[in-house]
Amino acid sequence: GNSVTQMEGPVTLSEEAFLTINCTYTATGYPSLFWYVQYPGEGLQLLLKATKADDKGSNKGFEATYRKETTSFHLEKGSVQVSDSAVYFCALRSENQKVTFGTGTKLQVIP
Amino acid sequence: KAGVTQTPRYLIKTRGQQVTLSCSPISGHRSVSWYQQTPGQGLQFLFEYFSETQRNKGNFPGRFSGRQFSNSRSEMNVSTLELGDSALYLCASSLGSGSGYTFGSGTRLTVV
To answer: Is the separation of the CB atoms in A102 and A91 below 8 Å?
Structure first.
């Protein structure tokens, strides 16, 4: 079956540091890939997506590139802020529309 | 436009009771999915409905059921509640293929 593997958290960074959260996937065909963010006490919000190989999704300073050759979709941000503290989920939607989430990575940004 | 609306936001139920949760998707979204989120198990997929038909189903017991109405609103029902059913239940709607989800704020169910 499909699977999504994210790096274990929590990740603790100082403000303005560079962020990378690794995500790799297993799926047949060409899934669509997503990053979601969950702030405390809220539901998940779609952060960015990419629907085909080599696509780059971007939003709010975050970026991720769909790498078919390495089956990866790593999330990056050049300079994190305290307000970026949240849990980040990587997910895929397969060609038969099944959605699989990773376990989530908690990010804590300290001033 | 209005987002995904889940009601109620909080529920406290006793073991053995049943509960119905409601979800109103974004207008025009025909796909509605339900997830259970707990600290130990993370996000677990319950089921997905599309145009009133269950399209996909997760690995939950038959006590968990759902349905979708012609206006795309969805309900999920849990019968014979157990303590382990305490969780945040999230509903998400989408346009379909290649689209991401829009999630509601969730219903926090506590079983005592």
So the answer is: yes
Q: Which of residues 31-90 of A touch B (CB under 8 A)?
A: 32, 34, 36, 42-46, 49, 51, 89
Residue pLDDT, tens place only, B56-100: 899 999 999 999 999 999 999 999 999 999 999 999 999 876 778
User: Do A9 and A104 meet the contact criterion of CB atoms below 8 Å apart?
Assistant: yes
Q: Name the amino acid, one letter, at A73.
A: F
Closest CA to B69 of B106, B97, B34, B32: B32
Select from A34, A43, A101 the Cβ nearest to the Cβ of B106: A43
Among candidate residues B12, B15, B8, B58, the one with its CA nearest the CA of residue B33: B58
Q: Tell me which residue in B33, B102, B106 faces A99 most closely, judged by beta carbons.
A: B33
Chain B residues lying within 8 Å of A98, measured CB to CB:
56
pLDDT digits (tens, 9 = 90+) for A75-85: 999 999 999 99
Cα diameter, chain A: 44
Q: Cβ of B104 and A42 within 8 Å?
A: no
